[in-house]
Design goal:
The structure holds three protein chains of three kinds.
Chain A: E1 4-15, E2 18-24, E3 27-29, E4 33-37, H1 44-51, E5 59-64, E6 67-68, H2 74-80, E7 82-84, H3 97-104, H4 115-119, H5 123-142, H6 158-171, E8 176-180, H7 188-205, E9 208-212, H8 216-222, E10 225-230, E11 233-239, H9 240-244, H10 247-254
Parallel strand pairs in A: 4-9, 4-10, 7-8, 8-9
Antiparallel strand pairs in A: 1-2, 1-3, 1-5, 5-6, 10-11
Helix pairs in contact in A: 3-5, 3-6, 5-6
Chain B: H1 2-11, H2 13-30, H3 36-62, H4 69-90, H5 94-122, H6 125-144, H7 170-189, H8 192-202, H9 204-209, H10 214-239, H11 250-263, H12 268-288, H13 295-313, H14 318-323, H15 326-334, H16 359-372
Chain C: H1 2-28, H2 35-51, H3 56-79, H4 87-109, E1 114-115, E2 123-126, E3 129-132, H5 133-155, H6 157-167, H7 169-174, H8 179-204, E4 207-208, H9 214-227, H10 232-251, H11 259-273
Antiparallel strand pairs in C: 1-4, 2-3
The chains are: A alpha/beta, B mainly alpha, C mainly alpha.
């Protein structure tokens, strides 16, 4: 079938002897919507932290488009094409909405601008600024946030903050987008809306998306395949229906 | 269209303020009515503005506290003045000597800024503040013991000093330097690079995840700020004699910090006004108070720091603060409606000290989410 | 020999101050910049009591009481309103408080150093070295106080509550611990330690001035950082180490003028190589 974007091999990390994530093997194909589910403390966010270079894995490695990214810094990994959102929203609170997105655009090759060009305010500076602003507006339009662009990020309601985080991550032009509980704290309408947006950006930007979510309706309505984690290890893997109906998974969630 | 024009104007307020003071004092000086002490005051105001604005880059925009800003000034003052005295023997033009020594003094200070910036990559907050404080003290102690710079007697700069009795042009040169510094600072802050710097201040982890090169920008800010502080030091060396290590103490670093806090975090216009105000108050106090009452100056600083910071940052006082917000008051007076969150600068709320998210807060946020938003999910699997 | 001994007793003073820093930092997560100036307050309390004809014993009690009251009031007025806001804001306020204490002291007592008529203990000879008895007392009493504090934190209810608050404020609150009260007690203990430090300081250098506390304060913080902030034994080791280094530097003519620079250079080096200090625990920001 189509090519594999993300591949992890025996990915694992331990903190002081405790194996937080152990032996995780995931393969995600291009343009796939892939889910990572599991009870609290199963190590889902830790997997994200491994994939974005916040933690360095103690075992195993991972590849993006066949290129080994293990051992790279957070910045480098982002440049290579993995962007993420955070479970506890981490916006640039004291900056306006549009500027949050513009920070995401910072490293795009088409907006390159030497610091000294900016210091002397040469023509290149104005050109870059204008182009960045336009591009940021374009991205905000997708998320229906264009009218809020001059508000401070911290003054947005919760659901919009989540959307803004996704918009900001999208601005870094990733190949793989990691979403950490994108629907947490959203009401049913907002969740519905978010599902449409996620599908839309996948199609428009040719994205591959890996997401963590607790809302099973959300997961089964969106994801083609999922991996279920429990106590840091893979409990089940496969198409969404299959994995969710796996007796082990039901046991882990509901108990015997 | 008119909106656009207004926006543009607000970008140039700082230049207009500084240029206005300069032009007015120049005209007064031409008529021969500018008292000698006031031309001194003008020089003091000029180098204070440079110091305050450059420190604001570090504290207000990058969000790291530096308690060693006087140390950079110290480097510039000693080395730049020494160099100027050597140059003065070769080059006849006073102005060229001053400019050259400012550049080189600034560059050397920038090198020290780079050195201080290195720990900033590993340390944050209180720890970094202490390291910068330690740096300032080390620099001072080393210069105090170097025989080239006159040891404890200080470096006599009589040869290059602008004697305010004969030559009042130093304030003009200083003010032009201020304008140049403002030009660079404003440009930096309003560019994508300034945005990256404020992003690091607001949330370093997120900035990294967005691919911002945190290492580069932290060093960059420290280097630029130190460069300007070094230039201020060279002006100081041309203004007074001797250049004495005791002037650049931790107390002076705090004085610059008071200017930044009074003017507002990440507000360049604020820093300019506050630097001028504090220098003016100092100047008046010095001529009217003597002996132990000189401590009143520090009492005023202390109250400015405590009252302003608590008022602007205390969570409980937030509602009162919002009511007194100058933007809202302005809106009331002019009858215009403006959304309270509507901002037009990268700085954010310039009164609030930027937060580096603390571990405790992060933890409590996690706690909230797990209980509020996923209540029906069982914990850690059933047994 | 006597250099090292002098270093030890200076180190004991640093250690006492460093303990105050470390406890407050460990529990309130703030750098109490004004801690050094509490020592100055204690010194002036002793000076005033003695000048008014009070007994030395009374002076000591007055010093402790005044310092504790100052510590609590400062915490309530200046730091408590800022709880939960940016650490930078708290630090700047603390610097403000430090200035406030210094300038008020200068306005009341004058900038000039005032001689305090402490009891003189003389000195004794061990072998060839001459050792001042004040140093011996400093060392012994210092060691006793530190041991007592360690026991207090380990074995009492309040001590355990302190440990809990330092680990996780939120969780401690959920467990029914009155966090505000614990922080207040911490400030009280820290200030009492500062009062003790002021007594020992005056025993070695019997004069007081408004800026008396600032340098020892900064150096003691250095000691606390070297030892690993938040760790009681770390503060002791850091303090003693710094005291010995200072005295040794002062005794070597080439290094003597650079003593402060050497001490701060050690601080910067330790922070760069091992930012958590010698005995500190690693903390990681959660993502």
């Amino acid at each position: 079938m189509s090519e594999i974007v993300l591949k992890t091999e025996n990915l694992g990390i331990s903190f002081g002897g405790l194996k937080a994530v152990d032996n995780v093997n995931i393969e995600i194909k291009k343009r796939q919507l892939y889910g990572l589910v599991g009870p609290n403390g199963a190590g889902k966010t830790t997997v994200f932290n491994l994939l974005t270079g916040v933690y360095q894995p103690t075992t195993g490695c991972f590849y993006l488009d066949g290129e080994k990214l293990t051992g790279k810094t957070q910045e480098q990994i982002n440049h290579k094409g993995i962007a993420r959102t955070f479970q506890n929203i981490r916006l640039f609170n004291n900056m306006s909405v549009i500027r949050n997105v513009m920070v995401g655009l910072h490293n795009q090759p088409e907006f390159k601008c030497n610091p000294f060009v900016s210091l002397f305010r040469l023509p290149g500076h104005f050109k870059t600024e204008k182009a960045m602003r336009e591009k940021a507006k374009e991205i905000l339009r997708i998320f229906d946030l264009e009218d809020e662009r001059n508000n401070l990020a911290c003054n947005l309601p919760y659901g919009k903050q989540r959307k803004l985080e996704i918009a900001r991550a999208l601005a870094t032009n990733p190949k793989l987008l990691l979403l950490d509980e994108p629907a947490a704290g959203m009401n049913p309408y907002e969740t519905e809306d978010l599902m449409h947006i996620i599908r839309r950006i996948r199609d428009e930007f040719d994205l591959t998306i890996l997401l963590i979510e607790h809302d099973m309706k959300f997961v089964s309505g969106l994801c083609d395949e999922i991996t279920v984690l429990n106590f840091g290890t893979v409990l089940a893997q496969g198409t969404t229906d299959e994995a969710l109906n796996n007796p082990e998974v039901i046991k882990a969630y509901i108990g015997e | 269209m008119s909106k656009l024009k207004k926006l543009k104007l607000s970008n140039y307020v700082c230049y207009i303020m500084v240029a206005a003071v300069m032009v007015v004092s120049f005209i007064v000086a031409q008529t021969g009515n500018l008292p000698r002490s006031y031309s001194n005051l003008l020089v003091q105001i000029a180098y204070s503005i440079i110091l305050a604005v450059s420190l604001n880059l570090v504290v207000g925009f990058l969000g790291e506290l530096s308690l060693g800003h006087a140390g950079f000034m110290c480097v510039g003052a000693y080395v730049g003045s020494y160099l100027a005295m050597q140059l003065a023997e070769v080059i006849d033009n006073k102005l060229i000597v001053l400019i050259l020594s400012m550049l080189i003094g600034g560059l050397l200070a920038a090198f020290f800024g780079f050195l201080v910036g290195l720990p900033a990559l590993r340390l944050k907050g209180d720890y970094l503040a202490i390291v910068t404080l330690a740096f300032g003290e080390i620099v001072r102690t080393v210069f105090k013991n170097m025989s080239v710079f006159g040891k404890a007697m200080g470096l006599s700069t009589q040869a290059i000093k602008y004697d305010s009795r004969q030559d009042t042009s130093l304030y003009l040169v200083s003010f032009i330097t201020v304008l140049v510094v403002l030009f660079f600072v404003q440009n930096l802050v309003r560019s994508k690079h300034g945005r990256a710097i404020t992003a690091i201040r607001d949330n370093e982890i997120a900035a990294k995840a967005m691919g911002i090169n945190v290492t580069f920008y932290k060093l960059f800010v420290f280097v630029i700020a130190a460069f300007f502080a070094g230039m201020a030091g060279v002006i100081y060396g041309h203004y007074t004699t001797p250049v004495l290590y005791s002037f650049f103490s931790y107390n002076y670093s705090i004085e610059i910090l008071v200017m930044v806090v009074l003017g507002g975090m990440a507000s360049i216009n604020g820093s300019i006004i506050a630097a001028a105000l504090i220098t003016f108050i100092n100047f008046q106090l010095q001529s009217h108070l003597s002996g132990d009452l000189a401590a009143l100056k520090y009492l005023i600083y202390a109250l400015i720091l405590i009252v302003l910071v608590i008022f602007n940052n205390a969570p409980k006082l937030a509602p009162i603060k919002d009511k007194l917000s100058p933007k809202l008051l302005f809106a009331k007076i002019t009858g215009k409606k403006r959304h309270p969150g509507d901002i037009r600068s990268d700085a954010g709320d310039w009164r609030v000290i930027p937060t580096k998210i603390k571990m405790d807060e992060v933890l409590s946020v996690d706690l909230q989410q797990n209980t509020e938003f996923t209540p029906d999910k069982p914990q850690k699997g059933g047994k | 020999m006597s250099t090292i001994f002098d270093g030890l007793s200076l180190g004991a003073i640093y250690a006492l101050i460093a303990l105050g820093y470390t406890m407050v930092y460990g529990i309130a997560k703030m750098l109490n910049f004004a801690h050094g100036d509490i020592i100055m307050v204690g010194a002036y309390a002793i000076f005033t009591t003695l000048a008014a004809g009070g007994h030395i014993g009374l002076a000591l009690v007055v010093a402790v009481v005044v310092c504790v009251v100052f510590g609590i009031v400062i915490e309530k007025v200046a730091y408590k309103p800022l709880r939960g806001s940016s650490p930078l804001a708290v630090l700047i306020t603390a610097i403000g408080v430090s200035y406030l204490l210094q300038s008020v002291a200068q306005i009341i007592f004058g900038a000039k150093a005032q001689t305090v008529s402490m009891v003189s203990f003389g000195s004794m000879k061990i072998g060839s070295a001459e050792i001042s008895i004040a140093s011996v007392i400093t060392l012994v009493v210092g060691a006793v106080i530190m041991a007592g504090l360690t026991l207090f934190v380990r074995n009492t209810r309040t001590g355990r509550a302190m440990q809990a608050v330092s680990e996780d404020k939120g969780a401690a609150q959920l467990m029914g611990i009155n966090v505000n009260r614990i922080i207040m007690i911490t400030f009280a203990i820290g200030s009492a330690l500062a009062a003790c430090a002021s007594i020992f300081y005056l025993m070695q250098i019997p004069s007081t001035e408004p800026t008396l506390g600032s340098m020892p304060g900064i150096k003691a913080f250095t000691a606390a950082v070297i030892g690993g902030i938040g760790s009681i034994p770390g503060a002791m080791i850091g303090g003693v180490l710094l005291g010995v280094v200072e005295k040794i530097c002062l005794s070597i003519p080439v290094l003597a003028p650079y003593t402060t620079a050497v001490e701060f250079a050690i601080l910067i080096l330790i922070l760069l190589v091992r930012p958590i200090g010698l005995l500190g625990k690693k903390r990681r920001e959660k993502v």
